[in-house]
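Good morning C.,

I know you're traveling, so I'll keep this short. The sequence:
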Amino acid sequence: EMIPVLRPATPADAELIAALTRAAWISKPANSSGHRETADGVRANLLESDAIIMELGGEAIGSVRLYPVYQTLEDGSKAGPVALEIARLGILPSFRGRGLNTWLMNEAMMTATRRGIEELRLAVRNDEPGLQRMYERQGFFVDSSIAYSHANPDSPPPITMRKYLFSKGPRAGTEL
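The tokens, ready to paste straight into the viewer:
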């Protein structure tokens, strides 16, 4: 079995990431915004986020985006980032079922840890309970107090989840 290679994306990868996202979203509901991903949209995202591309045997097979989340202080200034928001994590359908999403999630955790960020956040469509369970197995827990900044306005509000990377908060599996 080949070992995946994970690499940071650059703006030159925008078309590749857009194509990977559209292909990974093939089985998602029609109103899922991943179907409408464009290279221009990805380039704009990369101004405010990082992206990681997964390759297997030299072929790009998945990607994920990591957005910094800042805390607004009482005086209106921003502190942080206090968390990384995981978005658009996707693996091409023919490569699913091998645990490869865990590699992308581990890279997201290492990225956060290197930056001293203690929390990951994500959102799951409320019609994808299997996805929610997968993230729960990876240590995320539901927290409806999170405002997810990349929610699709054409879909019902998503289920928001978080994971603490250190001993900062409640242990995974507990509700707030």
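Safe travels,
E.
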